Fold this protein.
Amino acid sequence: MRQRIIDLGFDSDEKLFQEFCHQLINGLPEKTGVALRGSVVTDERYEDGLPFDAEGRGTSDLDVTLIGDQVMQYWVADEFYIPGLHTKPLSDKTPEVAPALNPLRQRLQQLVNRPVNFQATANLVLFAREVLMNQPYVIIIEPGEKS
């Protein structure tokens, strides 16, 4: 699955993927884990079943899930689906939900030349989404990992 993520989301460029991870490690609070979800993992868009980048290179986004209590503190108080456990997404359409993280998200978009969305969640919610809703994920940075 890791290789599929690199092939689809990072143009088969291992160094680009590693730089993406490096910027996340250095831009996020300590002990924050990072997972990728969505079509970059499954090669199938949730909405319509089409493959990743079906409309051309850079048209599919990277759904980045941030795992940990500290990172959730970056979200504005009323921007949670489940308070303290699962946030609303930070994206180009909603930069106000976690304004302090938006510059990092924008840098990552420029790096990979595609949309990048952030959402913070607890491990419990991430696990439940995979098991109950068939939404697989891949951990790319373990909580506490350093560059």
Summary: Strands lie at 33-37, 62-67, 80-82, 86-87, 116-121, 137-141. The chain has a mean pLDDT of 91.
